[in-house]
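The instructor's notes for this session suggest beginning with a concrete chain rather than abstract definitions. Hand out the sequence below and ask the class to guess, before any prediction is shown, which regions might be ordered.
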Amino acid sequence: MQYQKIWENLILPKDYQVERKMSSGPVIFFVITGSVRVRINRAEIHSVFSHEMFMTQTDSLYEIALLEQTHLLVCDVPMEAWFAEQKWIEELVPENGDVSDGFFKLTIKKLIIRFLSLMELYIREGIQSAHFYDLKRKELFFLLFSCYQKQHLNRFMNCVLSKDVQFKKFVVSNYLAVKNVQELAKLANYSTSGFIKKFQKCFKDSPYNWMQKQKAKQISIEINQGIKSLQEIANEYKFSSYQHFSVFCKAKLGATPTTFFKKNRN
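After discussion, reveal the predicted structure:
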C-alpha cells in the first residue's frame, strides 16, 4: 500500500480537467481554495467551492473541471477502510433502510480544516509511511462522525451505507485471511450469531459452507497452475498438516492433491 494512494495534495491550474471512473471505491475531495465543476455519468452537473467537500460514488464516471486555480486534498476511502467503523455506519442507516442517493456536498468544518492543513504539511515534508497515512484516514473518519449531524452524513456517505454491498465486499476481501467463521465475524465487528444471520441473508448459504467452497475453488486453481508445490499450497491455506490438506481435497475436489493435479494435467 502506497501512501500516495491514500492522500494526495494537489494545486491545479484553471481549466485543468480530469475524467475518472471510480471503480476501486469512493474518494473524498476537499476543496481547500478555488472551485470545481463536477459532472457525473455525463449527466448531472454540480459546483463545489472553497471549504466544501464531496465523496464520489463507486462505479460512476466523474468529470472534474477546475473553474480557477484550485487547491485540493484527496483521500481514498475504499469500502474496506470503513469496516472498522461498522457500528457508526449502521447508526446512520434509517430504520426503514432507505438511504438517500445522489450528489451531496458538505461545508468543511474548522476542526477538519486544521486537520487538513497538517495533512498538507505531512505530504509536503515527504513523510512516506503507509501505516501513518492509514491512521490519519481513520482520524478523518473520527472527525467526520464527531463534527457532523447524522442526517448530513447519511447523505454525504450514501454510497457506503448500503450494508449488503458493504458486507459482501468485506467477506470477499477477507475470507482467505482468517481460519474460521468466528475470526471473520470478529474482523467484521459482528457477534458470531449476528454475522451468520447477516451472511445467510446476503449469500443464501451458511458462512462455513460458502468459505469451504471458495477455498476449494482457489486451491483447485493453485494446483492446476502448477507454480507452487503442493506443500506450499497447504501452508498458504493454513492447513495444520499435509494430511489434513489431502483429506480436504479429497472431500471437496474428489481426489487427493497429487491425483487431482495429475488428472487435470492429463
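Then share the key points. The chain has three domains: 3-160, 163-204, 208-265. The longest strand covers residues 27-33.
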